[in-house]
Structures are given as structure tokens and as C-alpha cells.
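To close the chapter, one final illustration. This time we ask the reader to focus less on the individual chains and more on the assembly as a whole: which components sit near each other, and how the overall shape emerges from the parts.
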Amino acid sequence: MSTILPLLTANDFASDQEVRWCPGCGDYSILKQMQKVMPTLGVPLENVVFVSGIGCSSRFPYYMNTYGIHSIHGRAPAVATGLKSTRPDLTVFVITGDGDALSIGGNHFLHVIRRNLDINIVLFNNRIYGLTKGQYSPTSSEGHVTKSTPRGSIDHPLNPISVALAAEATFVARSIDFNTKHLEQTLQRAAAHKGTSFVEVYQNCNVFNDGAWEYATDKSVKDDNVIELVHGQPLIYGKNHDKGIRLKGLVPETVKLDGDISAEDLVCHDETMEEPHYAFMLSRMRWPKMPEPIGVFRNVLRSTYNDDINNQVADAIAEQGTGDLDALFHSGDTWEVH
Amino acid sequence: MNQEPIAVFPLDETNNSKKPITHLTAVTVRLVGDSGDGMQLMGSQLTNTSALAGNDIATFPDFPAEIRAPRGTRAGVSGFQLQFSSEEIFTPGDGLDALIAMNPAALITNIADLNDGGILIVNSDSFEDKDLKLAKLKTNPLVDGTVDRFRLIEVPMTKLTRNAVQDLGISTKVADRCRNFFGMGLLFWLYGRDISPTTRFIEAKFRSKPDIAEANRRVLMAGWNYGETTEHFASTYQVRPAKLPPGQYRNIMGNQALAWGLMTAAMLSDKSLFLSTYPITPASDVLHELSHFKNFGIRTMQAEDEISAICSTIGAAFGGSMAVTTSSGPGISLKSEGANLAMMLELPLLIVDIQRAGPSTGMPTKTEQSDLNQVMFGRNGESPLPVCAASSPGDCFNVAIEAWRIATQFMTPVIILSDAYVANGAEPWLIPKTAELPRIEIRHPGPISAGEVFLPYERDSRLARPWAIPGTTGLMHRIGGLEKEDRTGNVSYDPLNHQHMVQTRAQKVANVANVIAPLEVDGPETGRLLVLSWGGTLGACRTAVQQCRAEGCAIAHVHLRWINPFPKNLGEIVQNYDHIVIPELNTGQLRMLIRAKYLVDAQGLNKVQGKPFTVTELKAKFKTYF
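The assembled structure is written out below.
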């Protein structure tokens, strides 16, 4: 994406700390793609900060040779808000998980998105609490049997993309740990976005929830279960590119492309729609009833919190002049004691 | 009763009364009415004009949490107490010389504090049967003997106010809202106060509503003229200017002084100020104040909750800003986890707790000192933080600067305690010259080149670690809540390292005692009784001790600004007296710390009524030791 030749390599972004996720964890892939993407951004190491909360995914900053804060559970968006508001010159990533972002940190997640702080949020969704050894998470399916739900989860899951869109996220995307090329491209596009970018990554926890995303990663079925969103292109999927999404009224339906139905009858993907309802509709397409979209759901521009907070300061200085404490102290009614 | 409209005539320029003048040393006045009656405005105007007259002043606004509590009820009574004096004073006064009551509920809930023979001014239009019923009174206190001991002055303020504005064509409802200006005018007359600051205030406040401005001005003057022309008062009362240290003064409130102190600390340390906070009584005024000064480079954030407020503060501190979060007790408890992270990260930031009566939601507008235990111990694990407390409205300015100095010298969050009484109170403030204030030097480590090693947890002689900020080449490092290896800051589960780090963090906070001022004892260096106080009780304790001493008691007083760590000489001081009394607006939180640390038999004087100490009750306790 950058015309400047990258001076750094992926290795420059790897810290000297030993990576301690379980062997086979999907996190390794995300870390690798991130380290690959970083040099292409043209940002020096010292201008990048990774902020995380608590959970397996939140160990991420320790493995990046950048500045980093491993904060407390669910609070990374709040930490990032203070940092980016006061240091808009920095490139800030928030690394989070399904429990961190949507359960304990749900409030901060909503508010950082509605403020459109210019940061990049990557949510590792493994639909389980891994670090605490296997309790159900806010994205676990109903009926999911875990250590804390021996008779199955009775909680209706949250859909991370729907939640982000409800808060009017300006950039929303989904990718998959196993789909490394797509993940790399998605992270790159997220980083290029000005405003909050939100990327949900389907991530496999091979210890506590192995195969949670098998339908989207297994080579034999994934092409029929996943639809890749491409801006300006019709929604076509399937191993043989012979299936598509058509609108029936306000409801999307899957159709087979045969003689009667052509690509022109299908929904043409537009990630730049101003209102988020179309992207929301896409977010409601869930396997097994529908193929699940990956790629960029929404990509629009709106003013950022960090710009606004700093512009108000700049405007006040321009209008009132730089503040003078002595003048302030003597403003209003004062009196002299001799 | 006088049913005639009072003539509205322009006052002469000096607005001097023709009546004789009685000189007094000090006057304590309390204004009470419905929470929508404008008592706080009336109080702040009387405060301002008294300060401008050169009096020493101390105020105590006391209001319900409800913005417009049910009219006429006891629960809805809002009050403002002011003492103005020709001598130096430290409290808003105990017994009242004058009470202005706008309705029966206000009268009945406050009359006990009026001195015998004190002036009681009532709005007699508000003592109808329905008003008595709202106040749950079976008989009218104006006639049933309740007020026999006082100089009752019945003023039909509602009628007189309506009369004063009758030709302005404003509604009765709007006219009635001007009533507080009638009371104000009467008080200004009674105490020989200049009305011009208030007329200037009216002009500025109602610039866009000239008819309201005119109505208020007329009512103010009608009140003044009422005093001058009726036979209720034989003389006016004058309190001469106080002999305060020379210099330029202004009136300042606690939260305002705190905000200005934070701004000054930022300037002295060449930092831009970032305040992130969530609205809560009685702390919100700090946010309001700072949000108006963006041209000082101040960024303010109203966070989505208390947790976000402290966490964004941590982010800003990591980025190199002067970061502050403000709250009160319930919010501080939500911030505990964040405060603990900041302690672990060893980043400088300020956490301000403007205490109110707890527990839980408690009594949000009432004062208390009951968060000391919370800020000392309300975090998991071994988590020491420096804690300091403001002792008066003006002192909030000094505390803010000192706390930031300590935070940056020791790389630690610092907790500032204030309270509702200090935050909302006002006093004359000797305006400092910022050029004469000592600077706060901060050094961030500079860039290093490839091959050089940066150790984020290497410590200086104070045990502070370097404040390396993002954007600095070569200093990339990761910090977090996990235990860190000494010097490198890498995650460590090593048993001995953990013990070393816990002890090091504790020793670092203990080292703050090396740079804070030693305590000065007010009174004899040894003797029968030591009074030990902290925070907002300074004024009442100092006054009570001085009065006891004047009456022949060998009594000494020390007041703590720093509660963690204690000043170095406190251990010696507490051994020098036969008895120690610790007055606190809690059930003995400092007392527990003192007894634990110094093994002395300190006794408590503990009040948890949502109100500050009176000098009278302190003296009564102190005298029992003699």
C-alpha cells in the first residue's frame, strides 16, 4: 500500500520475549500476520503502541517490539483513548478477545467505537474463556457445554460485528486466523483507516474450543460456508462460484446462479454506504442458515475523537489566545490588602 | 403588616445608610429556603461582597442532593452559611447571629442553631396553613413560642417583590423567582455591604434578558430600601476589614482552587493537562472548571464511566501528559483496579477523591472524611500509594501542585483527598505570582541507538523508574499489571523477585517522607493534650485549640497534609503528650493508622452526621482532658 520502501522487516517488530501461547493456537497466526503488516505501514517502531486487556490474546503486546501496555480486563479501549487523545501522533492498536471486549469491557468497546477514536481494534474471537481454562464466553453458542455450563449455555450470544455496527463503527471487518492472506490484507486495510477500525478474527482455541470455526476453515466446506466481501462486486460464494445472495424484500436469501438468476440479480457489495443498516444485515448472516461474510463490511469516514479533542484546544487558543494563569487569577473581583 | 409598595428609588453612589452603625468583630449568617429558592446564589453574592469589603470569610453551603426537592418540605431545605470577620477566621462559624428563613420548613430545621437574641428574618408570606402542613407543623412557629428568644423580623417578601416589579409586565411566577434578591438587598443593607458587585453580576448574568435583569435589580434595591425605610432595624452592622497578610486577594472555592492548582502544576512542569472523569457530586465542578480553559492546552474527557476515566488517565500518563482523574467515594471504588494498575505500572498521575458521606450512595451532598481507609487499602495485593489531603478551599491549590511534584519525582499515582465541605466552601485567597512558584522538573529519558539496552524498571536514588514515553527511539518497552522482573520489567514469576518488587514499591512510597515538610506543632512541644487532625477539619480544630489555649489549657495541635507516608517527625511528636485526640468525620480511620504505626493510645472524636465539626463540640471534648 505504501509507496515508501519499507525500511523495517517483520522481524524488527518481534520482541525478544518467548511467545507462550499453547502450541497450535490461532493467536500465532494473527501475531505473524500483524508482524508482516507492520513494516508496510511506514511507521517507526517507537511510534506504535499495542494496548491490551486480559486474556490469552492480551499477551500480544509483550511479543511486539513496540511500546505496549498490558492493562486490565476489558479496559484497553479506555487506556487507548487517553493515549491517542493526548498523543495523536502515535499509531495505536487494541488487542482484545471475545470476553475482554464484549463481556467485562462491553461498555468501553461501545464508547470507543461511537467516539471513532483513530485506533485499530483486533478482536480474537475463540468463543471461549481460554486463560481461565474453558468457561463459556459472550460469543459461545446457546447450548454450548463448557466447564461452567455443564447443561449447556443459556446465554444468547453477542455478534461482535452487529455490536460494533450498532455503535456506528466506521470500519468493520472480519477475517479468519487460518486464512493468512485474507487476514494480512484485512489488517492492512484496518490500519489504513482513519477512525476506529474493528476487525473480528475467528480464532481457534485448540485446547478449550477446538473446531469452533471448522465450518469456516475446513477446506472441504469453507467455500460453501463463507462469503468473501469485495467492494463493488456481487455477493457470490461457493466452491464453484455458483451461489449468491439476493434480497427478498429486506431479507437476504441464498440463490443458485443458474440460467434464471445471474450476478446482476445479486446484492452488490458497497462498504461505503453511509447508514450501517446494510452492513448490519450482512452481520446477521450466520452459518448454518447462511454463509458468513468475511472482509470489510463497512468503511466510511467521520470525524475522530482525537482530532476533535485537539481541534477544540487549537480553536480555543486561536480565538482566546494562549491562556495566562496570572490573568485568570486576577480576573473578576479582587481586592488589595495593604 | 406593611401592604404598601415600597418606593423604588435609585441609591446614591455610596449606598450608605443614614441609620446609625453598630460595629461587630464577626457575623455568622445562614440563609435557608427551598432548594429552588436561590439560597446558594444569595450566599455566594453575600460572600463575594463581604470578601471585597476586606473581611476574612468562610462559607458552608449545605444543600440536598435533589435538584428541586418537593417544595416547602424539610427534605428540600437548602442552606448557605457564611462567617465574615475583621479577624482571621478558619470556620464558617458555629452559632448564628442571623438566620434568614424563606419558609416554615427552613425555619424549623435551622432555628436550633440561632444564638439567643439573634436576628430571624422570615418571608412571612410563606407561613400560610398550607406551608405549615408541608413542613409537617401543627402550629405556626412564628406565634407558638418557637421564636420567642429571637429578634423576629417578618417581611412579606413575596408581596413586596411582586410590588417592586409590577409595572414590568412579567408574570407572577417569574417575579417570585426574584425573591432571593429581596432578601439579598435587605442583608446588604443590614451589614453595610456594597450592592454594586451584585448589580454587575445581574447585568452579566441576564445580559440577554433585560427585563429579568431589571426585575432583579429593582427587587435587590427594594430589599435594601426596606431595611432603610422601615422601623424594624434601629441600626446597621458593620464588620471592618480583616488584617490579612498583604497582597492581592480574591474569593475562591475549593474545587475552583483545585482546578487552578492542577493548571498551575501543568504549567510549572511544562506538561499539558488531561482530565478524564465521570460526573459525580461533589467533584463535577472540577471538570466544569477545567473544560472552560481549553486555551490553556487542557484536554478534558467526560468518560463513559469511572473505570474508563482512570484507564484513559493511565493511557495519557503513559503518553507523557499530566493526567488526572477526579471523583468521589463511590467512583473511587470503581477506580480501584485502575489505580492499582497505575501503581504497578509506576506512572505518575493524580487521583482526586472529593469525599462525601458514605457508605454506598450515602448522602451525596454532605461532607465526611470516610474514604481514608478506602484510598489507603482499597486495592488488591500490596499496593501503597501516597495520600495527601487539602485542609481548606485555598489549600486545594497548593495540594494539587505538591501532589503532582511528588507523583513525578517518585513515578507513582498520588491520591488527593478533599471533601464536600472543602470543595464547596469559599475563602479569601492570596493570589500567587506564578513566576515565583518553584518549577517541577521532569526528565524523560532520551533516544538510544541500536545495541544499547533500555531498562524500564531501573531505579534512581528515590527508587523512581524512568518515564520513557512513546515516540522515543530505542526505548520501546511493554508494561503491564503482571509482576515484573527487577530492572528489565519483563514478566516474572520468580518468588524472590516478587518479594523484592513488593518491598521496593513500598520503600519508594515511604521515601516520599524524605521530601515532604516536617510537621510544625501549634502550641507547647510537650504537655497534656495533642490534637491531631487531617484534611478539612483544620479550621475548626485550629480555632478550638487556640480558644482552649487562650483559656489556659496546655494544648497543642498538628495537622497532617500527608497521610501516606506520615511526615518523619510525627512519631516523635505523638510521644510528647499525655493524651492524643484525633477528631475525624469518620469512625476513627486516621486513629487506627496512628495506633497501628506508633502504638500510642490515641482517642477519637468522631462525627458522622454529614456536617463539619463545630468549634463548640471540639472545645467541649478537648476540655475534658483538663
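The radius of gyration of chain B is 27 Å. Residues 262 and 508 of chain B are 24 Å apart (CA to CA). With these observations in hand, you are ready for the problems at the end of the chapter.
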